[in-house]
Write a structure and sequence with these properties.
Two copies of one chain form a homodimer. Chain A is an alpha/beta fold and 301 residues long. The first copy, chain A, has helices at 3-15, 18-25, 29-43, 59-87, 99-104, 106-116, 129-138, 199-210, 227-232, 277-299, and strands at residues 48-51, 54-57, 92-97, 121-126, 143-146, 155-163, 165-170, 191-194, 219-221, 237-241, 252-256, 263-270. In chain A, the strands form three sheets. In chain A, strands 4-3-5-12-6 form a five-stranded mixed sheet, sandwiched between helices. In chain A, strand 8, helix 8 and strand 9 form a beta-alpha-beta unit. In chain A, helix 1 (3-15) packs across helix 4 (59-87). Chain A binds a DNA duplex (30 and 30 nucleotides) through residues 2, 4, 17-19, 27-35, 37-38, 50, 52-55.
Chain lengths: 301, 301
DNA sequence: GTGGCAATGCGGGCCCGTCAGCTCGAAGTG
DNA sequence: CACTTCGAGCTGACGGGCCCGCATTGCCAC
């Protein structure tokens, strides 16, 4: 029994006549009549008794009607579900990001995504990069955003752009008079930056060596945002990524670091897991949001 | 999503490869590949990601897989149900009959029916004819067998044959010496027969009048089988239908009544209700059983 | 006769199937 | 290292069957 035959059968049962059923299904009466006859032929027994030019359901028809209706409703439900999937009206998007992109890029990406797909559940995970990789591998997140593009081979990293370093100064610090700082400006200052043996720390040391200066933090952090409190407390100048929206925090001044290294902004996905439609839509929004944020950075802040 | 597409999708999900799925469905690999591609085209999103010549289900495919399997199983169940209906392997047949056919015809009909369709539930109702008509109208029975063909217009009566009267004599009665009796033989005997204002009583009286004798029962019954006890007790000679297998009862002799009226044996159905396949099969068996019983009656007893 | 209903005949389009042939990647072999 | 082989899936051509609309007929009731 084909799905179409199910629909026709149900329509005739509900409408009572072939003509009315044909109207319900928006097809011609002969077409429906043919399908009905063919169905009965295939089944091997009659579904309706023709009496005086009218139809009367046989006991067999009544017997299978309930099942037919249930199945047809199920098919219709599946059809709706698939159109929802096509249009991206259902599902859950989980994005794992390290704090800077989570605070700088995801809000914008989520906003535009939500405007386009209001019914999709969104979940944001702020995590260090090792945790992001684990989540991508386990399927706990399908998209990741981090400030690193050197990743295991089973993780695909698409570089969306790059962002430099920023210096966080306590309010009133002498160096706040300059619009941008260089590494040599920081000589003799108490520095707060990433702990050793991490990529940003290495790159910073490399750049400093190239410029003939020495940069050695006296206070090490692992996540840039934790520098906020230390700078506010006057413990020193922080050398951190310029992505995080530092201006939102009171009590510190932000100055870009000239000639410093760059962080790559990478969009991470698992190579062993395919993206769902909604994941792809979110990926597009993250790309767009990133370019907007970077553009704003260049012109505005 | 067509039913075929559902099957193909499930087969590919289960088999893992297109070729294996095609083997499962006994079709060629290109055919299945086409259906799968067409399905994805119709859905608007891909179900499998092609990587290195292999297929990997997308999140959407995993999402709808459970529903698809459930629906497909439902369709398969309906398919089995319809073949059961066609072959008459399912259902319930309810037959209402008055006592003589219920004891003489139905056992044979049920036996041959059961031999052909062992899985069908059978139900026999022994009831007076008024109750039979009510049951047919209400759908509590779909077939009826009675010794009357004059019935309301909404009941169809198909006459399967006819049966005459029999005389039930107490063992040792003088008339037992004759192989058959006539109405005039019964003059002066105590008679047991149907109550007045019923069809057999009227016909009996009519036949007696035609033969110039008077038949007036001194003991009235409504159902012929109830005469057994009265005859065994020596209360008189019973004039009843010859259909009921009277020889099964001890303590009475049976002699046919010559030149008596005939009972029509009628197979009853409701004109407003259609017969199911199994009902029709049972109807055929009742017809056959009736002709066998009547033929045996002519030759054997 | 007229109107409503179901069935039939005819023609066209789409789906589905087989068959033959193709590309691509992995694995084996000299 | 180049070649072959094999298995995976895709493409194109062709045919049959299902589904559809249009025109028409048969049947019944009013």
């Amino acid at each position: 029994m084909r799905a179409r035959q199910l629909e026709v059968f149900i329509a005739v049962m509900r409408a009572g006549t072939v003509t009315a059923a044909a109207r319900m299904l928006n097809i011609s009466q002969p077409a429906l009549s043919q399908i009905l006859l063919h169905t009965e032929d295939e089944l091997g027994f009659t579904l309706f008794e023709r009496v005086k030019g009218r139809l009367r359901p046989t006991p067999e028809a009544l017997e299978i009607f309930a099942d037919a209706e249930r199945l047809s409703a199920g098919l219709e439900g599946l059809r709706r579900k698939t159109t929802d999937l096509r249009l991206g009206r259902t599902g859950l998007v989980r994005v794992a990001a390290s704090p800077p992109p989570a605070l700088a890029i995801l809000p914008r990406a989520f906003t535009s995504f939500r405007a386009r797909h209001p019914d999709i559940l969104l979940r944001s995970h702020m995590a260090p990069i090792a945790a992001i990789v684990d989540m991508l591998r386990a399927g706990d997140a399908s998209l990741g955003v981090a400030l690193d593009d050197r990743l295991p081979p089973d993780i695909e990293a698409e570089v969306l752009g790059s962002v430099g370093f920023a210096c966080l100064l306590p309010i009133g610090h002498a160096l706040a008079g300059k619009t941008e700082l260089t590494l040599s400006d920081l000589a003799g200052e108490e520095l707060i930056s990433y702990r050793g043996n991490t990529r940003p720390a290495d790159e910073l040391a490399h750049a400093a060596r190239a410029q003939g200066v020495v940069v050695s933090p006296s206070l090490e952090i692992d996540v840039s945002i934790s520098a906020v409190g230390f700078v506010q407390a006057g413990l020193g100048i922080a050398l951190v990524d310029a992505l995080l929206p530092w201006h939102q925090f009171a009590g510190l001044a932000v100055r870009p670091l000239a000639n410093g290294p760059e962080f790559p902004i990478a969009l991470l996905t698992s190579r062993t897991r395919a993206l769902s439609r909604v994941d792809e839509m979110m990926r597009d929004q993250i790309r767009a949001a990133c370019s907007v944020v970077l553009g704003d950075d260049k012109t505005g802040a």
